[in-house]
Amino acid sequence: MYAVIKTGGKQYKVATNDVIMVEKIDGEAGATVSLDVLMIGDGANVTIGQPTVAGASVAAEIVDQEKADKVIIFKKHRRHNYRRKRGHRQKLTALKITNIKAA
Length: 103
Hints:
By secondary structure, this protein is mainly β.
């Protein structure tokens, strides 16, 4: 059984015991969170929500809170003495999918 969930403005296809990296979700390591389910599939049976599947839920456990690799943003205009250098590290949460409950 698998599900398509939505968190942080992105969609992820998950199954039980998967570990995924998503944008930061508040909580300590070991806490349990519930996620929105857009679709559930079990072999040939597929249930698509409008926009979410009623009564379905995905439970996940927060494994870790961390930061992604640094991304450098460098802007330059030739011959105008214009240079800007910025860096960004996205905060991420590692989630372990513990349970997928269909409607």
